[in-house]
Amino acid sequence: MDGEGVRQALLVAPSYDHAEYLGAESLGIRSVAATLLDEGARVTVVDECPAEPPAEVLRMAGQSSLIGIGALFTRQIPDALALARTFRSVSPDAHITIGGQGSYSLWPRMLEECEALNSACLNEAEETVSELWRHVIAGESPASVRGMYLRLGGELLFTGPRAPTEDLDALPLPFRGGREIAYADSHVTLCTSRGCAAHCSFCQSGNYANRHPGAPRWRYRSAEHVVDEIEHLQQAYGARMFSIVDDDFLGGDGRGIQRAQDFARLVRTRGLDIRFAIECRISELEAALLTTLRDVGLRHVLIGVEAANDADLRLYAKRTTPQQAAEAIALLRKSDIEYSVGFIMFQPLSDLGGIRTNLDFLLANNVGSYRRVVNRLEVYPGSPLIGYFRRKQVHFREESYRMYYDFQDPRVALLYEAFVKLLKPFEELESTAARAIFRLRAEEGPAELHALRRLTEVTENITRALLATAYRCLQVAESGGVPADDKRIVAYAAGRVDELRNVLSP
Ligand code: SF4
């Protein structure tokens, strides 16, 4: 409790692994924070908290009645548990809870491994944490709060399922306090829908809170509610660029498309000058809709292609075809909208033929980046894919909540090693070009548009050089060699990188 008698809550997200993910604000815990503020709590949110928290965060923890830790990725869990133990050492009586998409299906296990935790919240937690808060400040047992695993009298109690929130407009807008410095570049993230109706086998999002019996798999905020938030973020923080982080902005079997049209109409009628990015499925893209959205500021779309060979597409249950993916890419190009492509080049049972088909697709469509080309399937603990792979004799080792595996085909293992080593220098070129494009996109004057066209060409040349190097590695692997040690490929890659670096230099 603080000096004025107001009870305090601390919500923390552990740091991300920046080698694999760009940092971002933790919208999940910020949405929970907003509901706690409505309950009258004093709330502090700490994004990207290091496993050894700064003194100021420890001081907050010591004053808090409720401490929540949100893990967006499973790989954050070891740090999340370390934070729980540290917070317990300074706050013996606080209720410490954990949640977030990364904790999916691991709730009892985390409680068994970490005595510092009182509970784990299942799925989306706004309503659960609000109720939990009321019990905590009243000094009552939260055993009746549905949607949790709870440590009670030395036992773990499942308090019962809780349906996900259907009326997302009824939730308060995420609490944005403490982010003013991060918003200084006018870039903000926001979430306008939750869930995804698809069933991709590798995807945690597709399983997270979307499978509650009777609840819709794609839930959404109304266009008006979203545009109100955008206007608010513009006025409060000068935000102009918005990354919409929904799994599927256009989901809902047509409802998302209708909502996107309403959204565009409202942005136009209110005269908002914005740029925004979305993520969606390739089967949802339409020429007319893209034109409409581009006119009101759509500048980037992330689509999940994932693979081009039949075996991988079946394994991932993508239910899309390479032809559809190629058409979606062509449509985005024609609409003059930047895009990136989710792609999983390797999985435990990959063979060289399937990888060649994947590379052929990337080359034919001139897409691909270092991260996409070296990307290997990540199987999270509890994933239904683990049983399938085990039946195929794939052996997994688990370490710190991450599942590690070897490729079944040793030639694939050699190829993967070569890709990681020899393609890595292209990543620096990609980042330099992407940063420059981001800056130019923000301005969009005539001079910037000219520079943008030039940079887009350079980016395409980087992709071609990357893929040409990858093909050389593949040829050596197919003939039984060790591509990572092939001096001709090493020299070829170094030459292409030097040449492109010179083109990129101002
Ligand atoms: S479409 Fe995307 S978000 Fe939906 S299940 Fe597949 S990978 Fe996950």
Automatic annotation (TrEMBL):
A cellular component annotation (GO) from this entry: cytosol
Every B12-binding domain range: 7-143
Per the record's keyword annotation, is tRNA processing included, yes or no?
A: no
Cofactor(s) demanded: [4Fe-4S] cluster
- List each copy of the Radical SAM core domain by range: 176-417
The answer on whether this UniProt entry bears the keyword Iron-sulfur reads yes
What SMART domains is this protein classified in? Elp3
Q: What are the GO MF terms of this UniProt record?
A: 4 iron, 4 sulfur cluster binding; cobalamin binding; metal ion binding; methyltransferase activity
The GO annotation for biological process reads: methylation
**SUPFAM superfamilies xrefs:** Radical SAM enzymes
Enumerate the UniProt keywords alphabetically. Answer: Iron, Iron-sulfur, Metal-binding, Methyltransferase, S-adenosyl-L-methionine, Transferase
Q: One Pfam family, short name please?
A: B12-binding
Q: What is this protein called?
A: Putative methyltransferase
Species assigned in the record:
Streptomyces afghaniensis 772
Lineage, please?
A: Bacteria, Bacillati, Actinomycetota, Actinomycetes, Kitasatosporales
